[in-house]
Amino acid sequence: MSATETAAQIINPDMPDVPPHAPSKIHLKDYKPSSFDVETVDLDIKLFDEHAIVDSTLVMQRQTEGDLVLYGEALELMSIKLNDEPLARNRYTQSEGTLTITDAPENTKLQLQVRIHPHTNTALEGLYIAGSGDDTMFVTQCEPEGFRKIIFYPDRPDVLAVFTTRLEADKRFPTLLSNGNLLEAGEVADVPERHYAIWQDPTNKPSYLFACVIADLDVLTDSYTTSEGRDVLLEVYAKSADIDKCAVGMQALKDSMQWDEVNYGRAYDLDRYMIVAVSQFNMGAMENKGLNIFNTACVLSSPETTTDSRSFSVKSIIAHEYFHNWTGNRITCRDWFQLCLKEGFTVYRDQSFSADQQSSAVQRIDDVATLRAHQFAEDAGPLAHPVRPESFVEINNFYTTTVYEKGAEIVRMIANTLGPDNFRKGTDEYFRRYDGQAVTVEDFLSALSITDSKIEDFIDWYRQPGTPVVSGHQDYDSATQTLTITLSQQTRQVAGFDVPKPLPIPVATALFDKDSGAIVAERMLLLDQATQTFTFENVVSEPVVSLLRDFSAPVQLNYDYQDEDLAFLLKYENNGFNRWQVTQMLVNRILLQGQGAKSSPEVYLQAMAQTLPELAAIDAMLAARLLDIPSAPELASAIHKDYDPELIKAQREGLYQQLAEALKDHWAMLYKQLPMQDYEDSAAARGTRALRNVVLDMALTANIADAAEWAQQQYDNASCMTERFGALKVMVNHQLANADEYLTDFYKRFQHDDLVIDLWFSVQASADMVTPDTIKSLLAHNDFDWNTPNRVRSVISAFTSQPTVLWTQEGLDIYIAVIKKLDDANPVLASRLLQVLARWNTLAEPRRQMAHEQLLELQKQATSKHVIESLNSVLGS
Ligand code: ARG
Ligand code: ZN
C-alpha cells in the first residue's frame, strides 16, 4: 500500500479536482433537522481482491420540506434506484461530497450501488485495510463522518436507523463481524471459496456507530449476566499472536458492566459485546454499537510486554467505550457541535471508574496533570475553543482535550455541586427522558437541574473558551475572630468571542489551624461573580487556607500564599491530591521565574526531605507522584511570551538535581526497601514499581556510585515491563556506558511485538540528549512505518518532549516534513500532529520567527481541509 495512493484521490467524475483551499465553515446556529428520516438500512458489502462493492437499501420518510441530501466521499456510483425504478440522471445532482435528490416523495426507498477501495485507503476512515501479509484485515472507523466513505447516506448523528448488514468475502477471512446479532452465515452459492454473514442491530443508531470487520482473528470468550438477567456473550478478537494479551481487557469489560449497573443503574442491552484489536487506528478506540474497535495499544496487555501505566489505561479505555453504550449510543448527539455531551460525560464516568480501581487521590493527580499539561495549553493558545464549539470546518479537528477533558471537568463540577444523591437523580432523569434520542447540552443540563435550577448556569462553561484565573487573598481580624477570603475571577477574551462572563466556580476550601494542623472549617465556596468575599466566623487564630481541594474547578489559582504556607499544607493536608497540588505550586513558583514566580528552592527541598521518606513507606504511589517535576512542555504551557526552551530545560534539570541531592541519603535505602518481587497487579505492587523507577532515576541523578549497577540488575532480573522499561529508560537518559547494548537486547527480545517496539522507538526519540540525527535515523529504520499511527507517534510525538531540539531549524524541518508527508495519506493524524505546534508564537526570537516561516511554508503546500483549518488557526489567519 503506497502512501501516495489515497482514497481521496479516487476522483469522482462529478467532483472538481481542486484542493479545498478555502474550506467552508459550518455553524451551530444553522442547525436544521434532516428533511428525511431513515427507518431501515440494508447493507451488502462484498469484498474482492482489489475493491469492494456495496449495495444499500434505505427506507426513508420525509420529515420536513427540502431536498434529500446524502453525503458521499470517494465513492464510485454504479447505480441508483428510487422506489424500484432507475433514477434518471436529471433527478439528482452530485457535487463535492453530496448527492442531492430534489423531489423525493414522502416515502422513498433508495437503492444504491457503489464501488469503494479499502485496499488503498490510508486515511483510516470508512472501510480500510489494516495489518499486512497473513494479518491483513479490513475494518471500519465511521465517527465522525466516515460512513459516507462506505455509502451515500444522510450521515449525521440525528438520523437514527435499524441496520442489517450482509458481509461477503473470501474464506481467507473467516471473521465477519458487524453490529448486533448474527442472523445467518454460510457459503456463497456456487462460489465455494467465498462465504457470508448477516448481522442485524435492533437498536436505532446513527451511522457513525456502524462497524464491520473482515479478518482472520482469534477470539477470547467470556460471559456476563446483567442485573436485568440478560446473558451476554463477551468476545475479544485479536490476531492469534496477541490473543494471550486480552485477559486484562476482558476483566475490565466485566468490571465496567457491573460498575455502570451499580453507579448509574445502566445495564447492557444486547446479547453480545465484541471488541476487536486493530494495529492501525488513528485514535484510542471506538464505541460502535456492540462492536468496539480498539487500537491494539489500548486493549492488549500482558505483564511481560505492557507497562503498568499502559495497562491501567487499557482498563480505563475499555470502561470509556463501554460507558458510551448509554452516554453516546442510547442517547446520542443531535449534531457534532454537541460532541462534549457524550465525550465529557463519558470521560467523567471513566475517571470515576478508574478512581475506584486505585487510590482516588492518584487518579485525580493523573487526570489533573493531563488537563494542566494539555488542555490549559490549548486554552491559552490560538486553538482555544469552547467545550461546545460554535463553528468548524472539519469536525475531526475538534476531538480535543478541551472537548474531552474540560468537558469532563464541567460534569464533575455539576456532580460535586449536586452531591451524589441529587446527581444520581439527575442522571436517572437524563436516561429516562432522552433514551433513544439525539440531544443537546441544554437537554443534559435541564435533566441534571431537576433538583437545583442553578445547574443550568453551567451552560456558560460550555460556551466560553479560556481558562479562568482565580486570584485571592485573605484578611484575618483577631478582634472579631473573623476570616475573610476575597476571590476574583478573570478569563482572557478569545478573538471572535464575547467579553467573558463570570462563571460558577466551586472552590472547595478548608481552614487549617496553624498550631495543630487540624481542619477547623470546611466549605464549598461558590464564586459566581467577578469578585466576592466569603466570611468564616469563630476562627480563633489565623488559619492556613487550602483552596481548590481535589481541583474542584478547572481554573488557575493565584492565591497570596507564602512558600511556608504551602510547605505547611504539604505536611498537614489529609488528601493526597491536595498534597501533590502544593508540591506543584511550589515547583512552579521556583521554575517560572520571570513569569511572576518568586520562590527559591529551599522551602520546597526541605519540605520534600521531611515528607518523602516517611510517605514512601506508607503510600509508594503517592510518594512517586510527589516527586513530579512538570515536563518541559508542561512548564512551557504556562509561558505566554519569550519562551526560551534552553532556559526552561536548564532550570528544570537544575531543580531535579537539587531535589536528588537534597534526599541523597535516602535513595539507597528506599531502593532496597522496594525489592523486586514476582509480578502482581495490585495497587500496592504498582506503587512499589512506580516509586522504584523514580528512585532509580533520582539515584543516578545524585551520582550514587551503585545506581548504574542497580539499573542493570533491574533490567536483567525484571519480572515485568514496568521494571525492564524503567531501567532501560534511565540507562538511555543518563547515557550509561552500556545503554546501547541494552537497547539492542531490548530490540532483539521483542522484535516481533509491535507495541514493545513502539516503546523502543519512543525511549530513543524522547531521550534527554536526543539529536535531530537520531530522529532521522529512527524515521529511516526498517521497522518505521508511515501507515501505522502508533509507530509514527512513537517517534514524532515522543520527540515533542524535547523542545530544545524540536524548536530548531533542523527539528522543525523534520517535524513539518512528517506533517507534509501525512497530509494526503492520513489528514486526521497530520492535523493532530500539527496542533502540537500551536504555541510557536510564545517562543523567544529567533526561534519564533523561524517557526513562523516554516509554518507559512507548510501553509502554501497543505492540501487536506483538516491541516488547512488547523494551520489557519495556528497562524491566526
Ligand atoms: N468516540 C471515540 C472515543 O472517544 C473517538 C473516536 C474519534 N475518532 C476520530 N477519528 N476522530 O471513544
Ligand atoms: Zn469517547
TrEMBL record:
GO biological process: proteolysis
Molecular functions per Gene Ontology: alanyl aminopeptidase activity; metallopeptidase activity; zinc ion binding
Peptidase M1 membrane alanine aminopeptidase domain residues: 250-460
Cofactor(s) it depends on: Zn(2+)
Record bears the keyword Hydrolase: yes
Stretches the record annotates as Disordered: 1-22
Cross-referenced Gene3D superfamilies: 2.60.40.1840, 3.30.2010.30, Neutral Protease Domain 2 (1.10.390.10), Peptidase M1, alanyl aminopeptidase, C-terminal domain (1.25.50.10), tricorn interacting facor f3 domain (2.60.40.1730)
Every Peptidase M1 alanyl aminopeptidase C-terminal domain range: 563-875
Domain of life: Bacteria
Sequence ranges assigned to domain Peptidase M1 alanyl aminopeptidase Ig-like fold in this UniProt record: 466-560
A family per Pfam: Peptidase_M1
Residue ranges occupied by any Aminopeptidase N-like N-terminal domain in the UniProt entry: 57-209
Record protein name field: Aminopeptidase N
